[in-house]
Amino acid sequence: MAPWIFTDRISSNQTIRVFNHGKSQRDFTYVGDIVQGIIHALFVNTGQPELVNLGNGSPVVLADFVRIVEEHVGRKAQIDSVGMQKGDVPKTYADITKARYLLGYNPTTTVEDGIASFVEWFRDYDASKYKMIS
Fold first, then answer.
1. What is the residue-wise DSSP string for 44-88?
2. pTM score
3. In this protein, which residues make up the domain named NAD(P)-binding (predicted)?
Protein backbone atom coordinates (compact mmCIF):
# COMPACT_ATOMS: atom_id res chain seq x y z
CA MET A 1 0.00 0.00 0.00
CA ALA A 2 2.78 2.46 0.83
CA PRO A 3 4.30 2.40 -2.67
CA TRP A 4 0.93 3.25 -4.23
CA ILE A 5 -0.07 5.90 -1.70
CA PHE A 6 3.32 7.61 -1.61
CA THR A 7 3.78 7.53 -5.40
CA ASP A 8 0.27 8.86 -6.00
CA ARG A 9 0.52 11.63 -3.43
CA ILE A 10 4.08 12.70 -4.26
CA SER A 11 3.25 12.71 -8.00
CA SER A 12 0.26 14.97 -7.40
CA ASN A 13 2.06 17.20 -4.87
CA GLN A 14 -0.16 16.06 -1.99
CA THR A 15 1.05 15.62 1.57
CA ILE A 16 2.08 12.20 2.80
CA ARG A 17 1.85 11.28 6.47
CA VAL A 18 5.02 9.64 7.74
CA PHE A 19 4.70 7.92 11.10
CA ASN A 20 7.41 7.66 13.75
CA HIS A 21 9.07 10.62 12.01
CA GLY A 22 10.32 8.27 9.27
CA LYS A 23 12.31 6.09 11.68
CA SER A 24 10.10 2.99 11.39
CA GLN A 25 11.45 0.06 9.40
CA ARG A 26 9.36 -2.07 7.08
CA ASP A 27 9.91 -5.04 4.78
CA PHE A 28 9.03 -3.94 1.24
CA THR A 29 8.88 -6.83 -1.20
CA TYR A 30 8.56 -6.66 -4.97
CA VAL A 31 5.55 -8.59 -6.26
CA GLY A 32 7.69 -10.51 -8.77
CA ASP A 33 9.75 -11.93 -5.92
CA ILE A 34 6.58 -13.10 -4.16
CA VAL A 35 5.37 -14.71 -7.39
CA GLN A 36 8.66 -16.61 -7.68
CA GLY A 37 8.24 -17.86 -4.11
CA ILE A 38 4.72 -19.09 -4.86
CA ILE A 39 5.87 -20.82 -8.04
CA HIS A 40 8.66 -22.57 -6.12
CA ALA A 41 6.11 -23.68 -3.50
CA LEU A 42 4.03 -25.38 -6.20
CA PHE A 43 6.84 -27.82 -6.85
CA VAL A 44 7.89 -28.66 -3.29
CA ASN A 45 6.41 -31.65 -1.51
CA THR A 46 7.49 -32.02 2.10
CA GLY A 47 4.86 -34.66 2.81
CA GLN A 48 2.91 -32.28 5.00
CA PRO A 49 1.58 -28.72 4.77
CA GLU A 50 4.14 -26.07 5.65
CA LEU A 51 3.77 -22.41 6.52
CA VAL A 52 6.46 -20.13 5.16
CA ASN A 53 6.96 -16.38 5.10
CA LEU A 54 7.59 -14.73 1.77
CA GLY A 55 9.03 -11.26 1.97
CA ASN A 56 12.28 -9.45 1.43
CA GLY A 57 13.72 -10.17 4.85
CA SER A 58 15.56 -6.84 5.00
CA PRO A 59 13.82 -3.94 6.71
CA VAL A 60 14.06 -0.49 5.11
CA VAL A 61 13.91 2.76 7.09
CA LEU A 62 10.73 4.60 6.06
CA ALA A 63 12.57 7.90 5.48
CA ASP A 64 14.87 6.08 3.03
CA PHE A 65 11.85 4.55 1.30
CA VAL A 66 10.29 8.00 0.86
CA ARG A 67 13.59 9.33 -0.54
CA ILE A 68 13.69 6.48 -3.09
CA VAL A 69 10.11 7.22 -4.19
CA GLU A 70 10.98 10.93 -4.48
CA GLU A 71 13.97 10.12 -6.69
CA HIS A 72 11.92 8.02 -9.09
CA VAL A 73 8.90 10.33 -9.15
CA GLY A 74 11.20 13.32 -9.65
CA ARG A 75 9.59 15.44 -6.96
CA LYS A 76 10.15 16.15 -3.28
CA ALA A 77 7.46 14.89 -0.92
CA GLN A 78 5.35 17.21 1.17
CA ILE A 79 5.72 15.38 4.49
CA ASP A 80 3.52 15.47 7.57
CA SER A 81 5.93 13.89 10.06
CA VAL A 82 4.08 12.50 13.07
CA GLY A 83 4.80 10.20 16.01
CA MET A 84 4.29 6.48 16.05
CA GLN A 85 0.74 5.27 15.55
CA LYS A 86 -0.87 3.69 18.59
CA GLY A 87 -0.41 -0.09 18.46
CA ASP A 88 2.30 0.06 15.80
CA VAL A 89 5.80 -1.37 16.12
CA PRO A 90 9.04 0.35 15.12
CA LYS A 91 10.40 -2.50 12.99
CA THR A 92 8.86 -5.40 11.06
CA TYR A 93 10.25 -7.78 8.50
CA ALA A 94 9.64 -11.30 7.28
CA ASP A 95 11.78 -14.14 8.57
CA ILE A 96 12.37 -15.95 5.27
CA THR A 97 14.78 -18.56 6.63
CA LYS A 98 12.31 -21.42 6.15
CA ALA A 99 11.36 -20.25 2.64
CA ARG A 100 15.02 -20.15 1.66
CA TYR A 101 15.57 -23.67 3.00
CA LEU A 102 12.38 -25.37 1.75
CA LEU A 103 11.73 -23.47 -1.47
CA GLY A 104 15.09 -22.12 -2.48
CA TYR A 105 13.39 -18.73 -2.19
CA ASN A 106 15.72 -15.82 -2.76
CA PRO A 107 14.21 -12.39 -3.37
CA THR A 108 16.45 -10.51 -5.79
CA THR A 109 14.71 -7.21 -6.47
CA THR A 110 16.12 -4.29 -4.50
CA VAL A 111 13.78 -1.67 -3.10
CA GLU A 112 15.32 0.82 -5.52
CA ASP A 113 14.65 -1.40 -8.54
CA GLY A 114 11.17 -2.33 -7.33
CA ILE A 115 10.17 1.30 -6.83
CA ALA A 116 11.63 2.22 -10.24
CA SER A 117 9.48 -0.48 -11.88
CA PHE A 118 6.43 0.49 -9.86
CA VAL A 119 6.70 4.20 -10.69
CA GLU A 120 7.11 3.37 -14.39
CA TRP A 121 3.97 1.19 -14.24
CA PHE A 122 2.11 3.82 -12.20
CA ARG A 123 2.75 6.51 -14.82
CA ASP A 124 1.20 4.29 -17.50
CA TYR A 125 -1.75 3.21 -15.32
CA ASP A 126 -5.12 4.62 -16.33
CA ALA A 127 -7.56 4.27 -13.44
CA SER A 128 -10.52 5.09 -15.68
CA LYS A 129 -10.09 1.70 -17.41
CA TYR A 130 -10.66 -0.25 -14.21
CA LYS A 131 -13.62 -0.54 -11.89
CA MET A 132 -12.88 -0.73 -8.19
CA ILE A 133 -14.59 -3.62 -6.44
CA SER A 134 -15.77 -2.81 -2.95
1. ---SS------S--S-EEHHHHHHHHHHHHTS--EEEE--PPTT-
2. 0.87
3. 15-116
